[in-house]
Amino acid sequence: MMKIFRFSVMAIIIISAALVSSMAYADQYTGTIEIFKKSPAVKPFFDNCHGYAVFPTVGKGGFGVGGAYGSGQVYAQGEVTGTTRLLKATIGFQAGGQAYSQMIFFEDKRAYDEFTGGNFEFDAGVSAVAITAGVQASAGTEGASAGASAGPATGKQVKTNYRKGMIVFVHAKGGLMYEATVGGQKFSFKPNK
Question: Is residue 93 part of a domain?
């Protein structure tokens, strides 16, 4: 059972890594940052943070056993200071796959130092603020379809605050999966030389 679990997690991570690495080009960082800047809930954090981490694409998937992977860049005072990798393994009720962008804002130097000081992990109680949410369905060839979305265009703003000096925002890119927390995500950091 444990070998099957490890194999399943590694397979999902490898597939996600291949998907993410093929999508993560330098100009995607700029594009991802611009998407988040358009959200009224996120925009104030750009003006008042010490720094942030940007993940243009995080891929996650699973069926009972799952995982997530993404690579990104870390910024302090507007300058790229290094690269980061996100890794998460999960077990429990989950099914499907999803791709999303993620940003983590650091309120002050202490929070930035904590994130970049080595291997950092979010505790189980941490969740992300979604800047968009969507559901789509279709049937047949050019037949019935349905959709629903909520986000910056709705005019509704969510009150958001830092937790332990950090706040996480996600932007769904595609897919459908049941799971809403970022708790358990592990990060590594490699500074620029």
Answer: yes
pTM value is 0.71
The range of the structural domain enclosing residue 126 comes to 2-133+150-191
Task: Report yes or no on 139 lying in a domain.
Answer: no
Report how many domains make up the chain: 1
- Residue 184 maps to a domain: yes
Instruction: Please give the structure tokens belonging to residue 191.
Output: 């500074």
Q: What is the pLDDT of residues 73-113, one digit of tens each?
A: 999 998 999 999 998 877 666 667 888 899 999 999 999 99
